[in-house]
Design a protein that fits this description.
This protein is mainly α and 584 residues long. The chain is built from 25 helices and no strands. Helix 1 runs antiparallel to helix 2 (41-65) and helix 2 (41-65) runs antiparallel to helix 3 (72-161).
């Protein structure tokens, strides 16, 4: 028994060393498995089976080696405890391996995403390089075009020197045309005088045709009262409304009505004659109140504006102005050619100058030819014309009417046979004719933008602030299209003429010059406290701020050779030159 105790201790140490070696080998296997990249669960199961086999083999080896020294139950219990601890360690390490596998999968997916983004970035870089090369090619081509245009410009400047002789010949032809124009005007005046004499003879000797015309006019009067005024709030441009293609209609003057003898003064007209005249004059809505108040023509002649507004119910300021102008014409006994143009003709005239969006307002106010020459800034604001460009358009159009002696057909709507029109012809172009010119200079896609813009020949020639830049803004040509704008500027300069273009440049380079914009608005003038005392001292004619001033020293009849006011002549040298040409 004494000899067996050291041997038992030696066997126990040997067994512990073996267990230690087995544990070390097991940990080495686990470390090897953990460092190994397991990609799927089947491989992990296989590795766990191998580890279990190794553990069981190690345990069996330990069990076999200690068979002779210890009892079977003790060794078995100790080995089972070691087995359980090892299994716990194996499960922990297995969970760690699975967690590391999940992280590896996440890293691989993120790596694939970054690789895809890198490929997309490389493709975008390639496209950017291709786009840059194409832009450089376009730049080179544009530089070539610019050099070609510079050469062409120098060539044209050289040819311009040779055009002095042609200009001299053109001036000679213009003088001959003036002589022919004067002869034609003289013949037209003789024709008008003959027609007046013929009408006077018809009034003195009434016949069957005169009576028929009287009943026909009565029928027309009964039908004219059914025309309803348009909505005054509809100020925007829209289709419909008044007919734009109606011919130039001349109003019925008092001398054309056989029931009214022009030898009888207006103050001696009867109530029925005055009411019939009001209906022919476009103010038929006030006849019912006029029958109750008016006794004869003298009632209207002696009435003040306040009495007319109170007794006849004339609330519209332009209706009162229309009536006052007509009564003043009866008092002064001056026959104006503008009085032959009625409010229907004015709506067509608005179409011709490119402002059809104001036809309803002008028709409701019954603006006729006589009122056009006496329109003020406040009158236009009452008609809802607030754009500064539209004010200038109406002003230049009225100037053209003055120069052409209020000829209803003075504006040209269709292109003629001229190849290179002169400024004196361009000044009579309508808005449609300017659009035809844009089509002729290869700008047809921008021509519809001039509808409702107020651009006509009078504005192009007579307004010094109207330039090619203003026209480009109205046509909505983008600023980056420099070649297109340059082409428009060259065509505009050729249309206006060298001298007028030079004057426009000088006016634009002057100090204090305000460029003309398409968005500028006209505001009504506000009176201060110091200006109220001067209003009572002024006369109505002096206080009127006419949109188209008339020279007070000129004859009152606008059919004669009337000069424009000094205010207008100082505004635009171009306008002075053309007005002098028309009136010479």
């Amino acid at each position: 028994m004494l000899n067996l105790e050291p041997q038992r201790k030696q066997n126990h140490c040997t067994c512990a060393a073996r267990v230690h070696r087995s544990v070390v080998s097991f940990c080495f296997c686990l470390t090897f498995v953990q460092s190994f990249n397991l990609k799927n669960k089947t491989k992990r199961k296989r590795k766990l089976i191998v580890l279990t086999f190794l553990v069981t083999s190690i345990v069996q080896e330990n069990v076999g080696s200690d068979g002779g020294s210890e009892s079977y139950q003790e060794r078995l219990s100790r080995l089972e405890g070691d087995k359980e601890s090892l299994i716990l360690q194996v499960s922990v390490l297995t969970d760690q391996v699975e967690a590391q596998g999940v992280k590896i999968n996440d890293l691989e997916s993120s790596l694939m995403e970054h690789q895809h983004k890198l490929n997309c970035t490389e493709e975008m870089l390639q496209q950017e390089l291709l786009h840059r090369t194409s832009l450089e090619k376009q730049k080179l081509s544009l530089m070539g075009e610019v050099s070609y245009l510079k050469l062409k410009l120098t060539d044209m400047e050289g040819k311009q020197g040779h055009g002095a002789e042609r200009q001299h010949k053109a001036e000679v032809l213009l003088k001959e045309l003036r002589i022919l124009k004067d002869k034609v005007q003289h013949l037209e005046d003789q024709k008008l005088q003959y027609e007046k004499k013929l009408k006077a003879t018809k009034v003195k000797r009434p016949s069957f045709y005169t009576c028929f015309y009287f009943y026909l006019s009565r029928l027309r009067r009964t039908q004219s009262g059914g025309f309803q005024a348009a909505d005054p709030d509809a100020g925007q441009f829209r289709r419909g409304g008044l007919r734009a293609t109606a011919g130039p209609r001349l109003t019925r003057t008092p001398e054309s009505d056989p029931t009214r003898d022009m030898n009888i003064p207006f103050s001696q007209w009867t109530k029925e004659q005055v009411c019939g005249w009001l209906e022919d004059y476009g103010l038929g809505q006030y006849i019912s109140l006029a029958r109750q108040w008016v006794e004869n023509g003298q009632t209207l002649l002696s009435a003040t504006p306040q009495e007319i507004e109170k007794e006849m119910g004339v609330k519209h300021p332009l209706h009162r102005k229309k009536l006052q102008l007509a009564l003043r014409a009866f008092t002064t006994k001056v026959v104006e050619k503008s009085a032959e143009l009625d409010h229907i003709w004015v709506t067509r005239w608005l179409d011709d100058i490119g402002l059809p969006q104001y036809k309803d307002q002008f028709h409701e106010a019954r603006v006729d030819g006589r009122m056009i020459q006496y329109l003020t800034v406040n009158d236009l604001l009452t008609l809802k014309v607030t754009s500064q460009l539209h004010h200038l358009s109406i002003k230049c159009a009225i100037h053209v009417l003055h120069v052409n002696k209020f000829n209803p057909n003075c504006l040209r709507r269709r292109p003629g046979d001229e190849k290179q029109p002169s400024p004196s012809e361009v000044v009579q172009w309508s808005n449609h004719r300017v659009m035809e010119w844009l089509r002729a200079v290869d700008l047809a896609e921008y021509a519809p933008n001039l509808r409702g813009s107020g651009v006509h020949g009078g504005l192009v020639i007579l307004e010094p602030r109207f330039s090619s830049e203003t026209l480009a803004l109205l046509l909505n040509i983008p600023p980056q299209k420099t070649l297109l704008r340059r082409h428009l500027a060259m065509a505009f300069a050729a249309l206006v003429g060298f001298q007028a273009m030079q004057e426009k440049r000088e006016y634009g380079n002057a100090t204090g010059h305000m460029p003309l914009t398409t968005t500028a608005k006209v505001k009504p003038k506000k009176l201060g406290f110091t200006q109220f005392s001067h209003l009572r001292k002024r006369k109505p004619d002096e206080a009127a701020d006419y949109i188209c001033p008339i020279d007070s020293g000129a004859p009152a009849a606008n059919g004669d050779s009337r000069l424009l006011s000094p205010v207008h002549r100082g505004l635009s040298p171009t306008l002075d030159r053309h007005v002098g040409f028309f009136l010479s």
